[in-house]
Each structure stands twice: as structure tokens, then as C-alpha cells.
Amino acid sequence: GAVVSQHPSWVICKSGTSVKIECRSLDFQATTMFWYRQFPKQSLMLMATSNEGSKATYEQGVEKDKFLINHASLTLSTLTVTSAHPEDSSFYICSARRGHTEAFFGQGTRLTVV
Amino acid sequence: EDQVTQSPEALRLQEGESSSLNCSYTVSGLRGLFWYRQDPGKGPEFLFTLYSAGEEKEKERLKATLTKKESFLHITAPKPEDSATYLCAVQEESGTYKYIFGTGTRLKVLA
User: Fold this and answer.
1) Could you give the CA distance from residue B51 to residue B40 in angstroms, rounded to a whole number?
2) Mean pLDDT score across all residues of chain B
3) Do B96 and A103 touch (CB under 8 A)?
4) A37 touches chain B (CB under 8 A)
5) What confidence category does residue B95 fall into, taking pLDDT thresholds of 50, 70 and 90?
6) Which of A35, A113, B45, B68 could be bridged to A47 by S-S, CB 3.0 to 4.6 A?
7) Half-sphere exposure of residue A20: CA atoms within 13 angstroms, side-chain side
8) Do A49 and B96 touch (CB under 8 A)?
């Protein structure tokens, strides 16, 4: 199976600081990577779609200046939460698509902003 | 508007009690339908991809089927370790090929 590694698994940061989350496809090249946010007992909310070497496409209502996405290579995408505030606390999950169909998920990052 | 609806929201089964989870979808063009399993505090784990009506996929106690309007995930003789949230997602045929997720079914299998 395809493996997607997300790091860190959890992070606690102070309000006003920035946090970077990494997503790597370990054994395949990802044509596209997705970033999701998930609230307790709710489904995944797509934040943005990124393709290697191009700007990310953000979903309506997602602040692109707060959630910076960089897709530097076919195996690495990063999400930076800038000037984080307590309302940004959530579970963030990345996924990487192999080819045009199947997407595989990272293990998620629990962000707590204090 | 593209939409995915899963039912029931929650399901409690006795060990060995078979059942089915439903995923109904409305999408302008279906590229694929996906089933995932998600454990608490973890990312979704890929289970199946279905592409066309009539297709079936099996893995251990799980079997996924697809029609033009819905998909079923059949669980045969479940065990407590099958307890998880099962998510269904559809992929659009055009545009960015993004996925639309349902809200999931929380399955609890009692020993």
C-alpha cells in the first residue's frame, strides 16, 4: 500500500506563533496533495488542493494568508498556520493522490493553540 | 450540488451480527467512489475504490458494492476490532478531481 507520513502528530503552540506541518508521500510520487481540517465527530473539510510547483487552490472561506501551503516536490507538501489563535486548534490531515484517483492519508496532526 | 450522505450516523452491533452501511451520492460525473476507515485521532485508512455500477470489492469481512446512486459497505460477522468510523467519498469527474466526503458512520461492535 501507499504510505503518507505526516509530521508532527501533535503540536502545542502559543497564540501568535506559526506552526508548520509536513506531509510526505514515502513510496510514490503524488500528483496532487490535499489538506483537510476535521472537527470532533465531523467529517473532513477540504481546505486546499495543491499541485507540485503551482499555487494551491483554496476552498471558499479558507484564508490563504493564514494557511500557507507549499508543494515543493512530488513527495512533499507543507501547511503553515501563521499567527495561530485558539480557534485554529483542530485536527489537520493531509492526503496525497497517486495517479488520478486513489488518495492516501497521513496520520493527522492535532494542533492546540494556547 | 454534489452531495454525499451516509447512513446510519451510528451503528452498534453484537460481534458476529452482519450489517450494511449506506452511502448515497449525487454528483454530476463520478470518477470513483472510495471507502475509508478512520480510528479516533488517526487519519483515514484506504479500504476500497469503486469505479462503475455493478462493481464489487472485498477485503476480509468487508465487501463494497456500487450502484448508480449509492454504495454499500457490507460487514460480515464483525469483530470488536472493526469498530471505527467508516467514511465514503466520491471523486468528481472534472475540475480538480477533488473528493467529497460524507459525514461517516460510527460503528461500534460489542464483544
Assistant:
1) 28
2) 94
3) no
4) no
5) low
6) A35
7) 7
8) yes
